[in-house]
């Protein structure tokens, strides 16, 4: 990683207009991801960090096309347009915010936006405002004051969010924040917030905020050729973000819900998705499954099968291309084009397989995963079902079983109550990060599996424990 300079200094108070030669970019993120975002900015060579604050990082670059819009962990990236003192709580102060629009160097902002890969022209204005603390005005008052002043200066239309309708396509997004010390005006670089991913057509309850998923993927340090598993994949966010960061990994997503698997499939259409041609039949509700089609030979699961839920539900779907206990862990993979035909192993590009399975009993051989990524179904909007309906213990047991010696899991937990179960399964927590998304706190935890398994000597697989 090339670090040119870092200085964590507070921004200057008073008015600041942006220099046209070295624009200041502002990346905003989920609270708790600031260090992760700072590391990504430096690693990408996107700029020199000049300020690191609450949900916000400022960085400067003279280089055109710094690839700021290629960052995956921010919610959004802006050009700093102008800044003045916060107006306080009184509503009378709101009209003075129009001054921000006067302070902004609109020509150099438009040029800077274009140079950073944003749209070339500003055909209209829309503004989104937020503030810290109680105020005697609302966000729309701020948005309208600044938006109308900007539109006047530029001679273009203004769309007020007060109407509750979406702005017309092509309207430039501006952001105003009042943090108690400063009122800050920023111009969004991309034509829409970066956290809105192109791939995301569908979500399921509990679907991850994509920048948070991207942060988990960074933490997992996925290497070319790695086998990556999400045992409760939902709409596939983690694996799709993994594919974006590491185009040479094999990805396996499992879920018990057919709707989740369909969502994963739809979201991953830009990836080579292994979804067999007879998917619909394979994804029928458990009661309809013909047990003859499934691998029930493995006796480890027989007792669960017969005792807990009756036959069918917890059998292993024989999805072509999945590693089986007998294949020695060598996963065969196949692409969307191959679906329904014979598997074509190919490690040169990303492969993703989504299949119906219980995370309490994964269709993966022991020690076959280099990385596990997961936000499991508890503590949030989704409850565990199947083998996870009464306890989380089997999820942890499967993490331990499936991870290769010395391999890494990165998980998002609603609290730390469960962590001792992971530790009892010999998974060692090596990193913990508290994050706050939509008002709810969660914990990003990285765990490492023991380097040896069942008395055997470790055979590291392309392994390096990330710092
Ligand atoms: C919090 S959501 C995961 C969301 C996902 N990361 C995303 O971004 O869309 C948890 C998922 O676990 C699934 N689930 C619940 N019990 C399960 C089980 N026993 N085995 C596999 N998946 C299960 C749910 O259907 C749900 O899709």
Explain this structure to me?
With 467 residues, the protein is of the alpha/beta class. It is built from 11 helices and 19 strands. The protein has 2 domains: 173 residues, VC0802-like (2-Layer Sandwich), CATH 3.30.2130; 239 residues, 3-Layer(aba) Sandwich (Rossmann fold). The N terminus and C terminus are likely disordered. The chain binds S-adenosylmethionine. S-adenosylmethionine binds next to helix 6 and strand 11.
List the SSEs and their pairings.
Blueprint: E1 16-17, E2 24-28, H1 34-44, E3 48-53, E4 56-60, E5 76-85, H2 98-103, H3 106-115, E6 124-131, H4 139-154, E7 157-159, E8 172-178, E9 182-188, H5 210-220, E10 227-230, H6 237-245, E11 250-255, H7 258-267, E12 273-274, H8 279-282, E13 294-295, H9 302-309, E14 316-317, E15 351-356, E16 369-374, H10 393-402, E17 403-413, H11 419-424, E18 428-437, E19 440-448
Parallel strand pairs: 6-7, 6-8, 10-11, 10-16, 11-15, 12-15, 16-17
Antiparallel strand pairs: 1-5, 2-4, 2-5, 3-4, 5-9, 8-9, 13-14, 17-19, 18-19
The structure holds S-adenosylmethionine.
Residues 204, 206-208, 232-235, 237-238, 254-257, 260, 358-360, 375, 377, 380, 382, 384-388 line the site of S-adenosylmethionine (SAM).
